[in-house]
Amino acid sequence: MTRKQKRGVLIGAAVAILAIAVIMVAMALRDTIVFFQTPSDVAEGKVQPGERFRLGGLVEDGSVKRGQGTKVKFAVTDTLQSVSVSYEGILPDLFREGQGVVTEGRLDSSGLFVADTVLAKHDENYMPPEVAAALKEKGVKLGSGAEHPDDKSN
Amino acid sequence: MILWIAFAVVAAAAIAVLARPLLAEQHGMTASAQEADLAVYRDQLAEIDADRDRGLIDAAEAESARTELARRLLQRSEQSDDAAQSVAALPKFPSPATIAYATAATVPILAIAIYLALGSPSMPGMPQSARLHQSPEQAGVEELVAKVEAQLRETPEDGRGWDAIAPVYLRLRRFGDASKAFSQSIRLLGETPRRLRGFAESTVLANNGIVIEPARLAYQQILTNEPGDHEARFWLSMADEQEGMLEAADKGYRAVLADAPEDAPWKSVVEARIASIAAQRTAETSGSDRPASQKPAGGQNPADGDASTQPVPPAASDAKPPGPTSEDIAAARELSKDDQQAFINAMVERLADKLEKDPDDFDGWLRLVRAYSVLGRRDDADRALVSARKSAEGNSDRNARLDALASELGLGI
Amino acid sequence: MIVEFGHFALVLAVVVALFQTVVPLWGTLSREPRLMETAKPAAIVQLLLLLVAFLALTHAYVTSDFSVANVVANSHSTKPLIYRISGVWGNHEGSMLLWVLILAAFGAAVAIFGNNLPLSLRANVLSVQASIALAFGVFILATSNPFLRLEDVPIDGRGLNPILQDPALAFHPPFLYAGYVGFSIAFSFAIAALIEGRIDAAWARWVRPWTLAAWMCLTLGIAMGSWWAYYELGWGGWWFWDPVENASFMPWLAGTALLHSALVMEKRETLKVWTILLAILTFSLSLMGAFLVRSGVLTSVHAFAVDPERGVAILAIMTIFVGGGLALFALRAGELRQGGLFAPISREGALVLNNVLLTTATATVFVGTLYPLLLEGLTGAKISVGPPYFNLTFVPLMVPLLIALPFGPFLPWKRGDIVAVSQRLIWAAVLALVAMVATMALSQRGPWLAPIMMAVGVYVMAGAVQELAYRAKIGSAGRDEILRRLRNLPRSIYGTTLAHFGVGVMVVGIVATSAYQTEKVLVLKPGDTAEVAGYTLTFKGVAPHKGPNFREQLGTIEVMRDGTPITTLHPSKRIYDSPPQPTSEAGIHASWRGDLYTVLGDAQEEDGGYAFRFYFNPLVRLIWLGALIMFIAGGVSLSDRRLRVGAPKRTSRAETPAGVVAAE
């Protein structure tokens, strides 16, 4: 092989790998990304049943109901709309009524959000930024419920 | 001073080290780029031989690697460094010595200037152990308190610790802590008049001057031990007054006044209470159905002329949370005891005003209901409860809390 | 007094960094050796001053000096000593100080060990290194000064976030930073080469050991972080493709590529331009990691307190160094001479493939991490990119990499014979097949891909061993000959073999855990038992318990296997005193077979039962064992004389080197 051919093979192989990677990335981004929605988005019908998405908001006060075993139901609200969520498993340590939460799952045909993941950040004052931004967008003022006596910014 | 000497020493040492090469005699490069490259190539040649000897590469591979290296070596040895450097050299000005002197001048000035802008050179270090082990005269009260608190965390059953810290809390106006500490010392060491008195006083103050049940019981106990005690009798009367038993209160106050020593400084206080009750009674008969929030603030105490009892103007209180601010509590502490009652009333009125403007403050309503109820103003309490219901609308948790409160206070639901 | 002295030392160090940035560079540009000579003492002084500053801050933490705002915000007098110390870097300000300290330490090491580097190269490298220290030093003083004092001294601090109070996490940041910052040396060398427009022969020899040292630390740092997340967060997982994890993983991937391309550059003086670019990119990714973690643009469980102002400052620093570096590269890369030739099938070719795959993989992680930001910026839509994305993009790139991996060390330089190498790897392939069949026989369930991937892991391990066997001529030579050969093999060969073996071990661990994890969520009342992966778990009850700075509800679970008691596990729910924050502590029984992992959930209101989550993670320890092996392998390689810093031994020139070197 000449110098040129050798270089051609190398560059060709590298470009091929890159091209394959680009295709994979494009496909994966189309299929696997999960959108973040607020209860108002759900109420507006932006999400189809069966479509996987993240639902974020505040855990509505007084909505947490424990069921059989580790089943639990609660409502996620952006204070304008709320969506009922069912979850089976152990809730995170910082899951609390009135606190910010992000859940991931799908809507069933009756409009119940069946979550398989519930996230509450390891921080007393944590408001998931998506939630905070979404709530702000909806013009909701965060009330005193979000305040804690032991404020700590870490 | 020591600190500045230390700074000077460090800065001088740093400058000396930095400037040394600059002040040295002219010298040749320790390793020219060309020499260094050739050294590397020679080393690599040796490694190829070693690898061949170990059988890591075969003879043919070794030979071709040697040839390649030899070519590089030859090439490099023919090429001088200056030719390789494509950039034209900059002028050698300023001279190294000038740079050395400039460094010696600018480095400390720059460092000190930045430090002065950011640092706190006058502040000594304050490691906690040193603060806690200072002799008591030097140590601030807070340090002492922290020390005792640390001990009490370790040995919460140490009655003497609680006994020691309780009056300090009281003096520091940490009334809630004081009340807790007195009750612990009573539990662990038994009752004494001093502890009972401390408990009762701190409990009342912790509750914004309202004689709640535990405090009332404590005063009764004091009275059992020392039947003539003026203070206990006064506060028990106050408790009666707050519960709306104006007649009993009036009688109690008058009894206290009757056997008060001639020169007792608190006599005027009791007289003021009596006058206040008289006024309340008149008000009750004339127009008790006026909504509480429309009463002029402090209006229940026409006897008070004292400026310190004037409520804070509404404009100033707007931005504040509805609860008593720390200044309020501080002010309460400054007041003589009778003025405290007036102060409490003023505070309650302020809360009512505040809630009128901001009816969503649920916790505020709870406090107001409780305050009215404790002050014996049942009608006002009922009205406040109705308003609280409104702010709790649709919230089961809040409603449950209201139900609990109403049944506790015996109010209509 | 000590605090203020530390503060002054920090300020002085920043001023010295300014000196070190300007004077030596001026020296190389004006060809004045006396100016170049100042780089060395300046680098050492800078390190000493930063060390003083760091020790002063540590002293403030250890003695709980609450006149220092940073101590108040992040420490508490009741905290155990080790966490008072680790609290120094458990927060933004202190960790930035540690960052510049490590930066200065790497610079000083170049200064001390670099006596036989060409003077101008050393001056330029140290000058670039100091410019990074200067930028971060100014950043610290302006936005994140850990030495600021409080007029009103509080009685006690606010405490450290309790989930950070953990031995693994205490030492995770120093290693991580040593890794991130270590790549700055490669960056400084790259920029120095571009400034001079010439790459010295010593370049790759120098860059490689420093990159290796940084890579080792980063490997260990990431592994510690993953281990911490595994047992502390109570989610049973060990890697979440969390943005902050990715931020440390990207420099690792790029650094691994750099390590391999520097090898080609050293041996063959080729791939120069690429290696320089990779050195710039690797450190750029480190800087980006710092930016992502500290700016708050991405959120994560690992993130520091966020402050947009700081984010902008770090972004500015990043832009200057990355942009400046790439601009200089674009300007000067053309002047660098090209090196030797090689055929596509050769050691060089294999290493190029390694580089292409690793950098492409880095790019996929990069896209997955930053795409949400980009999309939100462009359309306002909020999305999250989770593990499925990475499984579809990153993992497929790793498969050819792993398959090609054992071929590399067998291939000779310049030109190789792939058929011959394949024949040498036949035993590795056979072992891999056996492993695949065994996996299929042992597990009835799990994805179809899992046995194949298990086979790949075993194949990588076996391939590494086989390379050693081939070099020692095991199977064809006598015992004495084999031993002699094993003794004579350079340590760098052992390092390579060991590192590649570690990769195989890790792959086996990852595949086994990912494909065959058992998870059970159930409610148990005291006395109830549960069966998990062959273990019998009996719930004994929950009792309150008090620790040094927390209270907890301590569960007790007795573990039996085939009727014999194995251990008692204590998963618990903790509430820390300061700040009051709940956490879960998993109860873990570790064995070679796998980890039994128990998490205590909430009490059930009606019947006194407790929710539990049980996992069995088969072979999960192999993941961290693999990382540890890689770390050790790096150390073995570093101890090789040929890699040792200060490489060209000037004295050996005069002698006949072959015999001398071979005898070592």
Helix proportion of chain A: 25-40%
What profile does the largest beta sheet of chain A have? 5 strands, mixed, barrel
Strands ordered across the widest β-sheet of chain A: 2-4-5-7-6
Q: Largest beta sheet of chain B, briefly?
A: none
Describe, in short, the structure shown.
The complex is a heterotrimer of chains A (154), B (413) and C (664). Chain A is an alpha+beta fold and 154 residues long.
Describe this structure in words.
With 154 residues, chain A is an alpha+beta fold. Helices cover 29% and strands 28% of the residues of chain A. A 5-stranded mixed barrel of chain A has the order 2-4-5-7-6. By secondary structure, chain B is an all-alpha fold. Chain B has helices at residues 2-23, 33-54, 59-78, 81-84, 96-118, 128-133, 141-154, 159-171, 175-189, 193-206, 213-225, 230-242, 246-258, 267-287, 314-317, 326-334, 337-357, 362-375, 378-391, 396-409. Residues 287-330 and 332-336 of chain B have low confidence and may be disordered. In chain C, strands 3, 4, 5, 6, 7 and 8 form a 6-stranded antiparallel sheet that branches. Chain C is built from 23 helices and 11 strands. Chain C starts with a helix and ends with a helix. Chains in contact: A-B, A-C, B-C. The A-B interface holds A 61-62, 97, 144 and B 363, 395-397.
Write the layout of secondary structure elements.
The complex is a heterotrimer of chains A (154), B (413) and C (664).
Chain A: H1 3-32, E1 34-37, H2 39-43, E2 52-59, E3 65-66, E4 71-77, E5 82-88, E6 100-107, E7 113-119, H3 129-137
Parallel strand pairs in A: 1-2, 5-7
Antiparallel strand pairs in A: 2-4, 2-6, 3-4, 4-5, 6-7
Chain B: H1 2-23, H2 33-54, H3 59-78, H4 81-84, H5 96-118, H6 128-133, H7 141-154, H8 159-171, H9 175-189, H10 193-206, H11 213-225, H12 230-242, H13 246-258, H14 267-287, H15 314-317, H16 326-334, H17 337-357, H18 362-375, H19 378-391, H20 396-409
Chain C: H1 2-30, H2 33-37, H3 39-62, H4 69-74, H5 81-86, H6 92-113, H7 119-143, H8 167-170, H9 172-196, H10 202-232, H11 243-268, H12 272-295, H13 308-332, H14 347-379, E1 383-384, H15 387-404, H16 407-410, H17 418-424, H18 426-442, H19 449-471, H20 479-488, H21 491-516, E2 518-524, E3 529-532, E4 535-546, E5 550-561, E6 564-569, E7 572-576, E8 582-585, E9 587-590, E10 594-603, E11 610-618, H22 621-638, H23 657-663
Antiparallel strand pairs in C: 2-11, 3-4, 4-5, 5-6, 5-7, 7-8, 9-10, 10-11
